[in-house]
Amino acid sequence: MKTRPISKPTYMIESVHNALLLLNAVRDHGSLRLKDAAEEIGVAESTAHRLLAMLIYHGFVVQDESRRYLPGPSIGVGPTHSSWTKTFRDASLGPMRELASLTGETVNLVVRTGVESRVIGAVESEKLLRVGNRQGHVPPARTSAGGRVLLAQLGDSALTDLYQSDHALSADRLAPAEFAQLCRELRAVAEKGYATAVDTVEVGLSSVALCLRNGEGVALGALVVALPTTRLQSSLESGLVAQMRRAAVGIESRIRELRPSGTM
């Protein structure tokens, strides 16, 4: 199902906006200290504490004995079960900012959890017509460029477990013809070395993604450039993928020793 483009509300409610940013951060990083939470949204620790207290009250966040904030039972989408994603994001932000400046487009960092892809970091374009900050969004992996390039790293048996086995949720299970088509598309992604998605997550939005690996060759996530569909073809013809590959080299040099934890 295609959805309408998401635009920033005309009248932002700042406290609600900050609370939701914190909720996404706790979910995607697995845990946060109060200092980290305040830095995440650019507010004083006292303000972050009040926002987190409200999230605790409604069951979206819990606090453990070490006073770290963790995903609560009401959060719905499960956490990534790891703190390595924050290290991953922090290591990636420098090259992401350089790539955003070079291309003029929004740059995202994506990880995969099961059949979902998650935007855990974003550097927003400064152009008037741009893709907004999607940090915290959780689109299906098979429809997003970041998710597709990460699915392309899996073998047939792992893909079958995700989309065809008895363990797959009914909403995620694909008919045999759909699954065969997905496998063909993922093989093409693996051969090209990058994935694209055109209007599959939102109408008018396209993206290009490369896989990011640690020193052992393990796929940790994806570097994604998101842009209006009207600029996709000209960007590809102007060397976007080569620019992304240079940025990916910079990120991979910083994550050589990073090891993922939890189930992906």
Describe the structure.
There is one protein chain. The model has no long low-confidence stretch (mean pLDDT 88). This protein is globular. The protein folds into two domains: 14-71, Orthogonal Bundle (Arc Repressor Mutant, subunit A); 84-254, 2-Layer Sandwich (Beta-Lactamase), CATH 3.30.450. The chain is an alpha+beta fold and 264 residues long. It has helices spanning 14-29, 34-41, 45-57, 84-103, 145-151, 156-163, 176-192, 232-237, 240-254, and strands at residues 61-63, 69-71, 106-113, 116-123, 195-198, 205-213, 219-228. The strands form two sheets. It has a five-stranded antiparallel beta sheet, with helices on both faces. A two-stranded antiparallel ribbon has the order 1-2. Helix content is 42%, strand content 17%. It holds the Pfam family IclR_C. Residues 13-73 form the HTH iclR-type domain.
Name of the CATH homologous superfamily of the largest domain = GAF domain
| Major beta sheet, strand line-up | 4-3-7-6-5
Overall helicity: 40-55%
Pick out the low-confidence regions: none
Biggest sheet features? 5 strands, antiparallel
Coarse morphology: globular
Please give the domain count. 2
Strand content: 15-25%
Which CATH top level class of the largest domain fits?
Alpha Beta
**Radius of gyration from the alpha-carbon trace, in angstroms:** 18 Å
The count of DSSP E runs of length 2 or more, i.e. the number of strands, is 7
- Report the CATH topology name of the largest domain: Beta-Lactamase
Distance between the termini: 24 Å
Order of H and E elements: HHHEEHEEHHHEEEHH
GO molecular function, one term: DNA-binding transcription factor activity
InterPro entries: GAF-like_dom_sf, HTH_MetabolicPath_Reg, Tscrpt_reg_IclR_C, Tscrpt_reg_IclR_N, WH-like_DNA-bd_sf, WH_DNA-bd_sf
Domain HTH iclR-type: 13-73
Pfam family, one: IclR_C
